[in-house]
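seq as requested:
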Amino acid sequence: GPPAQAMTLAQFDCRACHTDQHAIQRRTYLAPDQLSSHGADTPALSPMFLAHVDCTGCHTEPRPLSVKPDSGALVAKPSAQACDACHRPGLGAKMIPEWQRATRSLYGQIEEEVNAAEPGLVDEPARALVREARDLLDVVRVDGSWGVHNPEYTRQLLERARARVVAAMAGAPKEPRP
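struct tokens:
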């Protein structure tokens, strides 16, 4: 009826259905709320966070939503050129691929170590360490920035994953090979 028709869009709470849309990205960028849960040794605050740059500082290019391109919905994609507003021209175009290349390389190495360790482990504590390592890899993969949201924190997560695999392999009895 008339009272319901008088509601405005501002009165709707989109978060009632769309929960934690970017929770991993937010936690990676802000890092301090995850330091204890992921065991990082030192705070790894994003330099962009410290400079008060929020998501819209880098995500500046409106593009159609990839899952519903005909819907008219847009999403702000990141742009290396956005860096030029505060840094010397071309810095983003140089640094972003460098961060991502280093992160993907380290991620790939550790993923191989996890995959090699998993099959032969029979000791539950060792298997738990490998699961923790895989969970840390998942944080990096799901974040999707491959280090750009917070390069130092991402490196710490990956090194922590590697330490879990090394610990699992060092102290675990392995299944005998036929």
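DSSP finds eight helices and two strands in the chain.
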